Amino acid sequence: MKEASRFEKMAARCWNLLNEGKPFTPIFVAGTMTIYHAADWMGGSWGWMLGLAAALPLFVIYYVYDYPLFLRNYLWIPYVVFLIVWSFADAALLLLASGLYFFFTVFFWGTLYYHLRIGTSWWNFTRFWKLVLKNSDSTSGNAQEQLPKVFLLLSVWEYASIQVERGADLAPLCGALWLFAALVWLFSWILHRNLFDWQPEIIPTYTNNVPSPTVPISDKVYVIVIDGMRKDRFEAANAPFLKRLRAQGTEFAQMETVYPARTVVCFTSMLTGTYPFEHGIRSNMVWKLGAKVETIFDSLRKVGKTGRLLGIAHLVDSFGDDVETVTAVMPNELADRYIIERAKRIVEEQHPDLLVVQLIATDQTGHSRGVLYDEYIEKIEEADALIAEFVAWLEERGELERATLIVCADHGQADGIGGHGHLDEGERYVPFFMYGPAIEAGKRVDEKRSLVSLAPTIAYLLGAPYPSHSRGPVLIEAMRKEESDETAARHRFFAGAQ
Ligand SMILES: [Zn+2]
Questions:
Q1: What gap in Å lies between CA 421 and CA 442, rounded to an integer?
Q2: Which domain of life is it from (predicted)?
Q3: How far is it, in rounded angstroms, from Cα 354 to Cα 220?
Q4: Domain ranges in the chain?
């Protein structure tokens, strides 16, 4: 299967500028103004740019505050206040902005982009517009967040430009509008501080629930991440293999993802054992490459072991050379099949001690067609069959004899364009289960656990030190009693021998 090319890695980064809501807002507003004033600047008149000075503080505030989930409703208040106080609305400008916005999201992204990248139909807009209207994630596809932000920024910018062109002084104009911005900042700060209270709790200490392991329990660990597999939709799917694996292993029934639940953020937390504030990856838009803390791959290197992550190009931003990339530009019905074939080749050629495989078709169908439709369930069922085949292949080759298998998702998906980020319904808890000779069979852990436990649990299984900033407790409940007793005995033996 084709690797992601250098061009694809660059293109993926550029696309993020339009895909992530934060950079999108200023780019879109500036683009809309440039189009609206095309006749002016072509005629050499740049007065319309001056008003930007008055709007600048608001750009910063709307970049910092994303007004997650229901908070977005409050975005209309500053806009209405502006309408009342300044009695200014340029209907043509707002109409142009709305038109461009829906053209970009519904046609360019929802139809053309998905058609070229994963082969969805040319008619996808007939579904996609409904998804954009409901969508609640942190991307530019969140119409209910983007439209009021865009309306206010455009209005302030245009209003100030007109006033300056009519001869008003820029300084007092900026004074008044900056004061307004200061009030919007205060309003945003109070709202976020008091209403935005659903972020997962952060584990305050570094991993310490079991001593750092010195002897491995497993020879190999295989982690299969079904990207964006929503828990209740997995339950609804006919996935006999995965459900049997879960029944014969240990299930963590309340496995919580991290905030913001964006793919690169989640994978980085899963494979470093800590949170965005510490590993530095705060969205899919990675400004500074590389996780700031040790990853599980670094831990493994310390004991002479190897780990590989097979996933999309975005993950290189966090994990660099530890990633084997797969191209995300291919028909979605082929994507997971190719990934599994590539995973087999990595096992054959490199024999890594840890292999993390990211299956992407379920997530992509959720994003392009929505999660509450049958197409999404079908993708989960296809993943089930592919994983069954992969596991049988591993078994045949004797790769599973002392191996542990972990199956999970990085985050769920909400209604809308399969969005994820702000932990809306369906995003927060993910399927997570472990299976293997060292793992308790038929066990279910109902206490809440976090995906940051993945890295230290892999380290524990493979006898490697925990990554430097790992905070998640080792999922020790999953370990067979005899295995952990035997390991403890060996710990004592080695401790005594020193
Ligand atoms: Zn994801």
A1: 32
A2: Bacteria
A3: 6
A4: 6-195, 220-480
Instruction: Return the axis-axis angle of helices 6-19 and 21-36, rounded to nearest 10°.
Output: 80
How far does residue 227's CA lie from ligand 1's centre (Å)?
5
Whole-number Å distance, alpha carbon 88 to ligand 1 midpoint, is: 42
Per-residue pLDDT of 60-86, as tens digits, reads 999 999 999 999 999 999 999 999 999
Distance from residue 446's CA to the centre of ligand 1 (Å) = 24
| Calpha distance 479→55 (Å, rounded) | 57
Angle at the Cα of 286 from the Cα atoms of 284 and 290, rounded to 5 degrees = 115
Compute, in angstroms, the gap from residue 271 CA to the centroid of ligand 1.
Answer: 14
Distance 408 CA to ligand 1 centre (A): 11
Per-residue b or e along 101-114, where b marks 16 or more CB atoms closer than 10 Å to that residue's CB: bbebbbeebbbebb
Report strand pairing: 403-408 vs 323-326.
Answer: unpaired
What is the reported pLDDT for 498? 41
Has residue 184 got a pLDDT over 50?
yes
pLDDT at 229 over 70: yes
Which is it for strands 354-359 and 307-312: parallel, antiparallel or unpaired?
parallel
Q: Which of 252-266, 279-293, 358-372, 374-388 has the lowest mean pLDDT?
A: 279-293
Q: Identify the bridge partners of residue 39 per DSSP, sorted by sequence position.
A: none
CA pair distance 247, 373, nearest whole angstrom: 27
Q: Which of 206-215, 364-373, 460-469 has the lowest mean pLDDT?
A: 206-215
Tell me which CATH code domain 220-480 carries. Answer: 3.40.720.10
pLDDT in tens, 262-276: 999 999 999 999 999
| Mean pLDDT computed over every residue of the chain | 94
Residue 81 CA, ligand 1 centroid: distance in Å: 38
389 CA → ligand 1 middle, Å: 23
The rounded Å distance from CA 116 to ligand 1 centre is 20
Per the CB < 8 A criterion, the answer to whether 417 and 370 are in contact is yes
> Do 420 and 261 contact (CB within 8 A), yes or no?
yes
What is the three-class DSSP state of 222? strand
CA of 458 to the centre of ligand 1 (A): 20
Query: Cα of 338 to ligand 1 centre, how many Å?
Result: 18
pLDDT at 491 over 80: no
The percent of residues above 90 in pLDDT, for the chain, comes to 86
174: CA distance to ligand 1 center in Å?
A: 42
Q: What is the mean pLDDT of residues 371-400?
A: 97
Residue 279 to residue 341: CA distance in whole angstroms: 31
